[in-house]
Amino acid sequence: MADNFLERQRRDYEARKQEWLRKKKQRFPIAKPRLEKPEDEAL
Q: How far apart (Å, rounded) are the C-alpha atoms in residues 3 and 7?
């Protein structure tokens, strides 16, 4: 068996995961809801 097989698999998995998360974050940015303030504060 190859040496460090599990370590290599884990390293490759983490790299793929980071790439996927980076692409996901770029594609779907989290939009913060914007509250509109009324012009007249008495309302």
A: 9
Q: Which two tokens stand for residue 24?
A: 């996901």
Sole residue written with tokens 């998995």:
13
**pLDDT at residue 2 in the model:** 65
Phi-psi region of 22 (alpha: psi -120 to 50; beta: other; left: phi over 0): alpha
pTM, entire model: 0.53
Q: Which pLDDT tens digit goes with each residue over 4-23?
A: 999 999 999 999 999 999 98
DSSP 1-43: --TTHHHHHHHHHHHHHHHHHHHHHHHSPPPPP-PPPPS-TT-
